[in-house]
């Protein structure tokens, strides 16, 4: 008689390579829970025990589907990942400098973009604990180091000019302390791909005047300035699709940048459509290829008159033939994620824990963030149908610095 399957079988005795293949299909929280099912005597169980403590990286190379998005916030010496799949929080130790002392400027492909206390940029993968340095802040076109009498670095000067010729300084260069420049200079950084896959380009939106600079991760020694004039810059968001970056300015104009060597070729593919500048606008793309503009509106409440809150979100489709935007009243089964992360949509059919026709948002009100670091963070979920904001969880745990950000964890390690 053929033996029937039994829950009593000790599947923890399976070969480690088979188990890691199985675990490669699991979500971030499922991976953690599954490790608890293994016999504590097996070598892979000991490995996963170390991983759950944040002492090592998971022995995984690829996942068939990206994991559910998580909300990253910080505690002393660690990153906390709040999973939207099981609504639990998972702590991940991070390498120095302490993540609590950094600014978070972006989240792409499972990696955070952070600025340390010297305003230097680092890529950090909280799932694998890997870290990469980006080119020095001193190599950005408008930044110049300021040295003390002994030749040590004591600060930076930021110059206020764009690519208009002849060059014109719109105001005198301003001095900033090492840890203050990051608050003024950086706005957002987006990656073209997971750095573990190689040939990754980081595109930075930065001041003055919301200009662009880019660098190849692990290759370039300096930031390459994208020479646009003041009138054509003022960028709010950027995505990477089909081998090019698509940057949207504060007036809704969309410019395509193709990178070649140290230069970027620009094509204006969508004209400015807004009669006024809006500082919370995002760009995304649907599976069918439509380009979306997401407009976010903030205001103040009677109970919290000094802290801005998201009050309304509007979504539009860019009609490239007619060069105008068309209102989108429903996302169908999709959900959108906006904030300091690269803006993305995701199908809730593949991720049943997410809410369809909702926009998940985190705080990215640039100047409010730095003036009110101890204030409440504007984190929530906006229903396009009901036109109201819901809490991600209540009570919220992420009320302090640095600002929380959405991330889709990546367990792919860089091959060295």
Count of helices? 5
Question: What is the helix content?
Answer: under 10%
Largest sheet: 5 strands, mixed
Ranges with pLDDT <50 over ≥5 residues? 1-8, 35-63
* Integer average pLDDT: 82
Our Rg estimate from Cα atoms comes to 22 Å
State the secondary-structure class.
mainly beta
Strand order within the widest beta sheet: 24-23-25-26-27
The proportion of strand residues reads 35-45%
What is the tally of beta strands?
28
The shape, in one word, is globular
Determine the N-to-C terminus distance: 51 Å
Structure overview:
There is one protein chain. With 416 residues, the protein is mainly beta. Helix content is 9%, strand content 38%. It is built from 5 helices and 28 strands. A 5-stranded mixed beta sheet has the order 24-23-25-26-27, with no helix packed on it. The protein has a 4-stranded antiparallel beta sheet with strand order 3-2-1-28, with no helix packed on it. Strands 4-5-6-7 form a 4-stranded antiparallel beta sheet, with no helix packed on it. Strand 19 and strand 20 (291-299) form a beta hairpin. It is globular. Residues 1-8 and 35-63 have low confidence and may be disordered.
């Amino acid at each position: 008689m053929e033996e029937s399957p039994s829950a009593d079988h000790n599947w923890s005795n399976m070969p480690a390579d088979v188990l890691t293949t199985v675990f490669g299909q699991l979500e971030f929280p499922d991976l953690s829970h599954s490790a608890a099912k293994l016999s504590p005597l097996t070598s892979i169980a000991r490995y996963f025990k170390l991983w759950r403590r944040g002492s090592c990286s998971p022995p995984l190379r690829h996942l068939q589907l990206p994991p559910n998005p998580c909300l990253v916030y910080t505690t002393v010496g660690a990153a906390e990942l709040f999973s939207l799949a099981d609504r639990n929080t998972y702590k991940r130790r991070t390498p120095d400098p302490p993540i609590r002392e950094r600014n978070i400027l972006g989240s792409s492909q499972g990696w955070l973009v952070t600025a340390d206390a010297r305003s230097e940029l680092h890529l950090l993968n909280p799932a694998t604990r890997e870290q990469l340095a980006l080119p020095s802040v001193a190599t950005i076109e408008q930044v110049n180091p300021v040295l003390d009498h002994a030749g040590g670095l004591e600060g930076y000067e930021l110059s206020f000019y764009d690519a208009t010729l002849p060059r014109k300084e719109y105001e005198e260069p301003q001095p900033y302390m090492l840890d203050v420049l990051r608050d003024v200079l950086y706005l957002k950084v987006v990656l073209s791909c997971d750095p573990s896959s190689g040939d990754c380009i980081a595109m930075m939106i930065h001041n003055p005047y919301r200009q662009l600079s880019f660098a190849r991760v692990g290759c370039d020694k300096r930031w390459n300035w994208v020479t646009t004039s003041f009138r054509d810059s003022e960028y709010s968001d950027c995505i990477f699709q089909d081998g090019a970056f698509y940057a949207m300015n504060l007036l809704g104009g969309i410019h395509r940048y193709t990178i070649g060597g140290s230069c970027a070729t620009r094509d204006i593919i969508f004209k400015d459509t807004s009669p006024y500048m809006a500082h919370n606008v995002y760009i995304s793309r649907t599976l069918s290829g439509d380009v979306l503009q997401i407009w976010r509106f903030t205001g103040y409440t009677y109970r919290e008159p000094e802290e801005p809150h998201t009050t309304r979100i509007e979504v539009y489709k860019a009609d490239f033939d007619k060069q105008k935007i068309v209102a989108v009243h429903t996302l169908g089964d999709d959900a959108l994620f906006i904030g300091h992360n690269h803006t993305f949509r995701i199908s809730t059919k593949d991720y049943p824990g997410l809410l369809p026709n909702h926009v998940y948002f985190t705080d990215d009100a640039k100047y409010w963030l730095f003036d009110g670091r101890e204030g409440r963070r504007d984190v929530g979920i906006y229903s396009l149908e009901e036109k109201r904001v819901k809490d991600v969880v209540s009570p919220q745990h992420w009320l302090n610095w640095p600002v929380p950000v959405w991330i889709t964890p990546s367990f792919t390690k860089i091959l060295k």
